[in-house]
Amino acid sequence: MAVLAYPEEHYARWRDELLWPDLSYGAFGENFTVAGVSENDACMGDVWRAGTALLQISQPRKPCRNISRFWNRPELLRLVQRTGRYGFYLRVLEEGVVEPRQRIDLVDRPNPTWTVRRATAARNDASRAPAEALALLQVAELGDDWRTHVTRALRRD
After folding, report:
1. In CATH, which of 2.60.40.420, 1.20.58.100, 2.40.33.20, 2.60.40.10 is domain 3-155?
2. pTM of the predicted model, to two decimals?
3. 73-87 pLDDT, tens per residue?
4. DSSP string, 34-102
């Protein structure tokens, strides 16, 4: 969970929905605001080259109450959860330098069927769809934190 990426496209929607025209990039705590990729098409294990760094998507973000507290908007956490506009974490495979507005390239996609959105649903629905949660646990690139939470969710049943 070294780097948090958040899709740029979400900002226009938030600005309209929250009537918050000056909401700026970085408002969701991300390290990278990324364009052209979202939870719907980014996949678990995707490897990205950003500047001289090599990064890998390891898990969806699970937002907490801090986002609501920080902005003094009690409804914000619920809206993030309802919309699925979470963002996602990347692990650092190779350290490097990344400059603002630098191009990010997809280098490898080992799990093309495991979008970030699907992984989020597998965790959230583990009790109702345990087979899907078990399948997610087979994704080798899945982050340890997410793996622990999915495993706990399955044990509750």
Report:
1. 2.40.33.20
2. 0.93
3. 899 999 999 999 999
4. ESS--TTT-BTT-EEEETTEEEEEEEE----THHHHHHT-TTHHHHHHHHT---EEEEEEE-----TT-
